[in-house]
Write the structure tokens for this entry.
Amino acid sequence: MKALYVESCGFSQEYDYRWLQFREQTEERTDKESLPAILLDALKLVDSETFSVVLARQDGELLLLVTGLEPKKRLDFVDRQIRIAVAWVGEDEADSELALRNLAARALEPEGLASLTTAISLAVTLGGEEGFQTNVAALFALAEPHQGTELVAENPSEEIAEPVAEPVAEPVAEPVANAIAKRAKTSPERKRELAAELREYSLPVQSGALVVVTGIKKEDTLREAGVWRGLSTLVTTEEWTEDIGAGKKRGILLELVSIGVLTALLGFLAKFLRFHTMRP
């Protein structure tokens, strides 16, 4: 991965929610407006205060954004739940895509989300100059295609050991997913189905937001953004619904018009023949 972005807050009132950027071992606080376009565009498509997942492709980069993570017993000075959001950005390459797809699939399944939340909460802890501090290596390792990471700590404030690399099999060519866009109402079953699809198939080659799973977001917003797989609580259909593209809609419309014209011509011809056969 080439860059990492983390949003959270500290315990005290002075440490409100803020984004930190990590790139090539450098840490920098950044205003939301200064975030890269691929991340800003993803944030526009989700309710970032609730659990959301976005996979996107833009200008030769791939993004995985996970928001609304809620570590256990992580409260601020007035006992409000403290949330964490993390975005990984990598090159648009096969290894990066495989790693981000698998990490997204993990986040979409209950057991995987629980373990991922624990791992991230151990890597993003309270304290430091910004109100929270980050074990950058541990977060990067979560999205490494050739590493397995096990984070263990009895106390979140304890220093976490660097992740240990474990060899894994080289990725093989995978079938490309069906490019037809689909949307459905967010549910555990739909999320499990999407996780299975992400593990099995490569992403379609289009740019923009490819996968969006979120809370309160209008279906029209997902449709207009060209989202390939979209789940939102505001989508009305429980089952997956395919999105017929504008080109296909025009084709169907032209076909219906052609059928209508042909039917009218046949009707006129039948009347014409009947009229002439009735003449003496």
Observations:
- Confidence is low (pLDDT under 50) at residues 147-169, 246-254.
- The longest strand covers residues 61-69.
- The two ends are 88 Å apart (CA to CA).
